[in-house]
Amino acid sequence: MPPSTACTSQSIGVYRGLADLETFILHGRAARLGASAGPPLVRDADELAAFAEKYRIPPFKAATFAPGSNVRGYIGLDGGSTSSKAVLIDENGDILCKQYMLSKGNPIADTKELLTLLKNDIAQQGCTLDVLGFGATGYAADVLEESLAADANIVETVAHGMASTRFFDKVDVICDIGGQDIKVLFVTHGQISSFRLSNQCSAGNGMLLQAMAAQFGVSVKDYADVAFGAKLSPKFSYGCAVFLDTDRVTFQKEGFSREELLAGLALVLPKNVWQYVAQVPRMAALGRTFVLQGGTQYNLAAVKAQHDYILERVPDAVIHVHPHPGEAGALGAALEARRVVLQRGKSTFIGLDAAIDLSFTSRNDADTVCHFCPNHCKRTFIDTKAASGRTSRYISGFSCENGTVESKEKLKELAQRRKQLKAKYPNLVDYESKLAFQSFYKPAPLPEAGAPLTREETRRNWLGTAKKVSVTRRMQRSSAEDHAFRQTIRIGIPRVLNLYSTAPLWRVFFETLGIPSANIVFSDATTPEMWSEGGKYGSIDPCFPSKVTQAHIHHLLHHKSREKQLNYLFFPCITHLPTFVSGVMDSTSCPIVAGAPKVIRAAFTKEVDFFARAGVEYVDAAVTLTEPNYLVKQLFEAWGEKLRVTHDECEFAVNQGFEALKRFDAEMQRKGSEVLAQLEDENRPGLLLLGRPYHNDPGLNHGVLDEFQALGYPVLSIRSIPKEPEWLERFFADDLRRGMVDSPLSTSDVWPENYSANSVQKVWAAKLAARHPNLVVLDLSSFKCGHDAPTYGLIDHILSATATPAMNLHDIDANKPGGSILIRVKTYAHTLKLHEEKLKQAAANRSELEQRVAEKRRELLALQREQLAREADIQLMNEAYQAYLEADITVELPDRDFTFDAMGDTQPHSARETALALVNGHRFVIEEQTDLQQIQGGQQITLNPNLLASLNLLEIGLKKTQQTSCSSCTPHSCPTCAH
């Protein structure tokens, strides 16, 4: 053994003391971990003492009363997923007492217990409690509204906003961190303008901190005291709770103590809130006053981490911690109940004792399953009965409105209410989306051969000077055989993109040339089923409206063409669009939208030519709608030979197409003027959709407009806003007088360098909404819309200048976030309710002269509408609108179930019987026996009139299952075998 490693008797087993170990623990470990660790929550005891003095929430002291007193107040209850809270406030809005308990899984049982605790708080002082009103929020609010007749059912976002503004005059941002979810609310002009939610991820909520503390044997109440003892902290990666726990295990192996781990978890909390959930790139742009709410704010370590994070990014920020962070939602519900009862003059609440004594049953079995649509939702019935005999039933678990009823009779009543709602609160976006694809204008017949045609042409002299001259020549017509040939042609057109604003032009163009209206076939409106079936031909990355076009092409090829063979599929590349906005630099279509037809051609011919396989010729000609003469040339090159038409016929058809567009605009503006006049008469707000034409598609707007219509708010489109200078002058007179614009249809004052037709129309509509007191805004944009992105700041600035209520959905995509949209709608609806109250109050405060002027204006508008109604084409449009209102036909079912299974396959069935077996208006192409077996029937069916034309085909399909086809027949033509 080398001398250097030799062991001696003197060096073996000699105890050298604890000095080296203590040095490592005190200095060596910190030096080793400090290289990758972060700072502690506090530097020293003085910093902790100063912070705790400012931000520690003082213990709540309930109010005391003289024995025998009658305590009057309002109760608010927040039925959360992990805990339930209730507060009692007095008539001034101050909290008298409050209760908190972990939820036991049944909202009614939790409510009964909380109300009992509040009653006991008052009774123990020898007093009686007189409840003036009751409000609810949270997931339990709906069932409590039904069972307890709550005065207020307020969405959580609004409840937390009201609780915040109750204590703090100026609020810009509210950060609510609960046990299961996070809410970041952005406030403008005292109202919630936008928010971010996370209710499915535990990356940054209170339960994460509580669960981590429990692993170290630390109570959540002691979390802060332990975490503040750390001298350094590990740097957790923000994001998913699973990865946070992985980091925790790794840091434990590296030697971090429990104090340090808890400090590190507290420090990563604000990163999860602001970067992972809210995804805010620049916090300073949100404002400077932040309010922290939610039960997690009782944890002073979490508050310190958020405080430092915010101040680092907003140095002049003012940060408040709500004095009742855990009960903020319940406080908001109580405040709203007080507001509603005071405004209404009475309460609907069944009473405290009746609520405590309420009996209830909950049922979820085969009898509660809904059979009114193919989903067959497994519903839950919650039945309640009060001592007074009052009963109620709350139904949960349904996916559509049909699930709210239980019988055929109630379904009929529901359908009737839908029709009444449709007529009373028009949704002109929905009307426009349907009218655009209907045959509402009968084109003028083609002039006879040799008829004189006069047109203006531009000619240049030898100096190059342009001059317009009138030229007369003779009409050239195609032959009678060519005309007969065109009557056999069928053309499919996808219901997508800018076809929503130009479809009348294309329909009338083809109809003028002699193609029957029935032979111009549009795909159906977008549905999730259509997208799921047909959206698999390739990736069109930028936005869902362009992606979904492939599903529409698939629908035309594999559904419409199979019903009856299509000859052509027309999907034009629209490069330029007509616009009503004046002084624009250009009027272009989005390049992604304009190029989508070319991308579709590549996708459907990449490996297999699906057009050739279907026997359909695909036409994707480029068209420019801002230059009519050039458009004639483009369409003649595309269709001249295919349809055997002359250049003169093509030109006449284009002119008729533009006339159809003109009538389309006139009809929508007429309906819009009627709605706006009604809103002004009744001092109510109407919702103006700022969207691109294809956001009229219910499959793209996810039916959010229907939600507002159901709440009693008419919906207007940009096209439906009147464009007459006389009408607009009332709103733009000041701008015109000051020379800011030279026309009420100009956007040069806010966006002089505009070029995108659809985007500039949104900006103009925002200008009008900012000036019209009865208009509020819903701004829709699809995810990744590059052309709309520059308008976000413009529109926000325009609307904020006049405090016009606005709701933004800038990231709608293929997926429908149902819960998130519903919360947004309820939040915005509360703002609209307050706005309507202001309108009515302003109307009551108007002077007599102002009222007489407004009345005279209404009379003039009424006379104008009557004059328009006398015109023949207006009568036709009235008929079209009435047809739209009556678009759903209710089919009464016989006593027995009328499904395909019940009908059997032993005999052909009538069209009516076949209709009864259809499910909720869906169309089916019945080709094989298996198709029949897949169709399930319902108890009550709603048919769209467009389905009636297909009933004979359906009957044929039924017969086909019993007969074999002839060996020599041709499809769709054999009367013997119905092949």
Q: Report the C-alpha radius of gyration, rounded.
A: 34 Å
- Our estimate of the beta-strand percent is 15-25%
What would you call the quaternary organization? single chain
- Globally, the shape reads globular
Q: Please, how many helices?
A: 36
Q: Find the count of extended strands (DSSP E, 2+ residues).
A: 27
Q: Quote the distance from N terminus to C terminus.
A: 101 Å
> Going across the major beta sheet, what is the strand order?
3-2-1-4-5
Helix content range: 40-55%
Largest sheet: 5 strands, mixed
Low-confidence stretches are 1-5, 889-979
The structural class is alpha/beta
Give the averaged pLDDT, no decimals: 83
Q: Could you explain how this protein is built, in words?
A:
- The chain contains 36 helices and 27 strands.
- It is α/β, with parallel strands linked by helices and 979 residues long.
- Among the domains are: 70-157 and 330-357, ATPase, nucleotide binding domain (Nucleotidyltransferase, domain 5), CATH 3.30.420; 366-414, no CATH class; 432-456 and 474-665, no CATH class; 669-843, Rossmann fold (3-Layer(aba) Sandwich); 874-965, no CATH class.
- The strands form eight sheets. The chain has a five-stranded mixed β-sheet with strand order 3-2-1-4-5, sandwiched between helices. A five-stranded mixed β-sheet has the order 8-7-6-9-10, with helices on both faces. Strands 17-16-18-20 form a four-stranded parallel β-sheet, sandwiched between helices.
- α9 (258-277) crosses α10 and α23 runs antiparallel to α30.
- The radius of gyration is 34 Å and the shape is globular.
